[in-house]
Amino acid sequence: MNNRRYEQRVMLAMVAYMVVLFAANSTLHAASSLLLKVVLTLVPVVPVLYTIALMWWRIRDSDELEQRTNLVALGVAAALVSALSLVGGFLAAGGVVRLGGEVLIWVFPALMLGYGVAYKVVARRYGVDSVCTEDGSAWLPWYFAGTGLLMLVFALNLWRRHDTVAAVAMVATAGFFMVMSAWVWRRRADARRRALEDRP
Q: Per the UniProt record, which residue ranges are transmembrane (predicted)?
């Protein structure tokens, strides 16, 4: 699976995740059946599992350098999230902070964020810049921007339901996606400019 196809499939899966999460969360409180509540609660997990499968297929079919890069990045991300979970657990056990069960929803996004940052650092160390690769999807910056906008809509819905903490967390995540959109767009614009300057 090439980089462009992988990015496109991940984008579609994450857009599906956001749409399903928004729709399921909107109807969850109106559901009276326990079975329906379980189904609505777990439906957003399906696109996430598909994304994990996409990552596995990509790593499995890549060369040794790409596999090593991904393995190191996943190791760093897992260590970081494990350390943060341990700190949060001790703070909650000591009564310093109050953490509900919904904090577990943020484990996977935190793991993916750590993986993404670690992957970029490790890849650059090996002389690879995956953000600027020619086979990357041109829609990647727009995907980040669109995801950020979807999260802002979701945050507005949470705010209207007086779930202030979740709304603020969603706005912060939306801001991260907007920053990522600008960063990727600028990196690719710089790469295109350098490629034009290097042409004879």
A: 12-32, 38-59, 71-97, 103-122, 142-159, 165-185
